[in-house]
Every structure is written in C-alpha cells, then in structure tokens.
Amino acid sequence: MHPTRRSIAAAAVLALTAASSHAQQGQTVKVAFIDPLSGPFANVGQNQLKSWQFIADEMGKNAAGVKFEFVPFDNKGSPQDSLTALKSAIDQGIRYVVQGNGSGAAAAILDGVAKHNERNPGKELVYLNYAAVDPSLTNERCNYWHFRLDADTSMKMEALTDFMKDQPVKAVYLINQNYAHGQQVSKYFRDTMARKKPDVKIVGDDLHPIGQVKDFAPYVAKIKASGADSVVTGNWGQDLTLLIKAAKDAGLTANLYTYYAGVSGTPTALAAGVGGKVRVVAYSHNGLPDPVKTLQNKFKGKFNDDWYTGATYNGLMMLATAMAQAKSTDPVKVAAAMEGLKFKGFQGEVEMRKADHQLQQGLYISEWRKADAKVPYSVENTGWNFQEVKAIPAYVASTPTSCQMKRP
Question: For FRET with 249, which of 29, 32, 43, 89 sits at 20 to 30 Å CA-CA?
Fold first, then answer.
C-alpha cells in the first residue's frame, strides 16, 4: 500500500478505536443482526450484514477496548419472523440488536424489546435502528431503548423538496411500496412540496405490494401517460431495480428522485441506461472524504461489493463512545450515555437527540454520474457513481418530534 494511503487507512481505524479505549478492555459484545437474508430483499440484507461485520473488524484491529461480533438472524422481512429472531437472540444472551429493512419489522422489534425490558429488569436490550425510517418510531411510538441512526422519511423529504423547489419540476408522479414507509413518502411529499412550491401538480400516486411485483411495465405506462416530468419513489431493493428496468424498456424520460437508488442491485440497472436524471436523498454519497473514501475502497477490495450503509460506522462509533463514557458494556448504562450524545460520525460531529433518540445529521442530494477524476469510485463496477449536487445541513433537514419519552 502507498504510504499516504496507509496513513489514511490507519487514521480511519484510529478514529473508530479511540472512543472505545476506556471501555471494558478486551470484552467481546455480541450484537444480533435481524434482517432479510433470504427472499426478495436478501441481497440488501447480506450486504448490510457484511457492512456491520466489516466495520466491527476495522474497530477490532486495535487490541484495546471493546470488540463487536455480529450474530445473523434471518427475519425474511417479516414482523412475525423478526419477533422469533429476537427471542432467539435473547435466549443466546445477546443484549444489543440492529435492524433496518422494513418499518413493519422495526415496529415489531421495538415493541418486543420494550416488553422484554419491562418484564426482565437487569436483562435489558438496546435496539439500534439503522434504516427503518417510519417517523412514528421516534414520535408517537418512541421508546427509550430504541435509537435511530438513519434520517426518517420526513427529514429526507425536507431535504429532497429543499432541492426540488429550485428545479424545473411541474408534474410529479408518486410510486411507492404499500406499507408505512411508502405511504409516508407520498404523504410527506404532498404536504412538504405544497408548502414550498404549491404550483407543482401530482399527476399520479400509486401504492403497490412490497416485494411482489415482478413487472412494473403497467405502472411505467401510467407514468408516461400522465406526462410527469419527475417521479418520486421511496422504493428499495428489488422493487426499485425492477421499476428502473421497466422505465428503461419503456423509454421513460422523467427524472427520478429516490431514497435508495444506491442499494444493492439498483446501480447495475441504472448503468444499463435510463432516460432522465437519477437523484438520491441520503446521509452519504460516493464523493465524501475519509473515512468514507478509505472504507468504501477497502470494502470493495475485500468483498467486490459496495459499502453504502454508513450507519454501520456511526452505530459502532456511538456504541463505542457511549461504552467508553459509561466505562461499561451494560445496556442500561450505555443507553443512558447515548442519550444526547455528540460523537464523531463519518461526516463530522453528529448528535443523538435526547428527546426522541433520532440522530441529527446532514443530508445530501446526489446524482448518478459517470465516474471521473474527482469521484473515481465505481459503484457495482459500473463506471458510475453518486456525486453530490447539494448538501443540506442537519438543522435544515431536522424535523420536530412529538415523542413523550418515558424513561426507566
């Protein structure tokens, strides 16, 4: 490795490990990973399991401090299977849980953790939600033991519409998965865009079964017939990949505004060609400096896959920092330390808001572009990547909370 690159990589590892240097030295903390490892969204779950394990390995390079070990449980994307997995994790003595794919599964885990903790004092669990973005999870359903690392649907919509209001957008078609997240993308877009640019027309609003549609051609035909110049979708995984393939086949020229175009499988579909511009609202993009630059290159070299879930970095940094402050790996002490915690995330200092346990962080609008000298990274080895077109500060993307937190 080139000496400069070696020093950059070492700095990234040191940043990860420094926070845990005062925690319980040498302990291994097991974390249950509960997400789809089979079924239509298996490719996403498998990538994210590797991502957590990868960041854990990076932290484990330093002998001092806590090491994290991820134990996988396949919930098949189902709320009921999530509860079965949670019980298995509890039976194995695991006290920390991470999950992200699907707000239905997230709600089940949140309720399961809350009930377990109430009934089993001294054996409490902490739940880190890294990607389930239903705003209710940190509003009316908020719970002391739940901490969200991703920006919720309303926060992302604030950022997305902050960008779209300055674009030549006149007619928008909404297409989303028919569950909490997809329904809320539709609702929040309507409400937020009406406030920021009321002359934008909604020319279509479809909700389709999640993970069940094999051919999106009929939906794309409706989009074309509507005359939409833009499509807004919160679809992810197979449902976005197949939508984009159908859009290409039909010659759709509308611009696509997405939440999850960077998720496994979708970039390859984008690289085959798409008529309009494709933009993403997210907390990261491929052009961010270190530690993102070093980590995504290292992950690519190890797995020939893409590290796009930056919440894995922030989640372990938050845990390690809290454990160092608490001088303990006890979930009760760590949860108390994480409330209101400010720590160094991959994009700088971020804060776990005490009121509702929603991470406050900046967001970005990025665009699918040909890799270049400025951003050479190749997503899914396509020669393309997501490059920043607008940065939205945390205070702009932040939304208020109705959470009435009940603390133990």
Answer: 43
Cβ atoms of residues 309 and 128 within 8 Å: no
Task: Report the alpha-carbon distance of residue 331 to residue 326 in Å, rounded.
Answer: 10
pTM of the predicted model, to two decimals?
0.90
**Which DSSP symbol is given to 151?**
P
The Cα 369–Cα 383 span in angstroms is 9
Q: In sequence order, which residues have a C-beta less than 8 Å from that of residue 235 and are 6 or more positions away?
A: 175, 176, 177, 182, 243, 258, 259, 260
- Predicted confidence (pLDDT) per residue in 141-157, tens digit: 999 999 999 999 999 99
In terms of Cβ atoms closer than 10 Å to its own Cβ (0-12, 13-18, 19+), residue 304 is exposed
d(CA 31, CA 37): 16
Q: How far is the CA of 300 from the CAs of 149, 295, 331, 400, in angstroms?
A: 23, 8, 33, 37
pLDDT band of 61, cuts 50, 70, 90: low
The domain 3-151+288-360 having CATH identifier 3.40.50.2300: the answer here is yes
Domain ranges in the chain?
Answer: 3-151+288-360, 154-282+363-397
Superfamily of domain 154-282+363-397: Response regulator (3.40.50.2300)
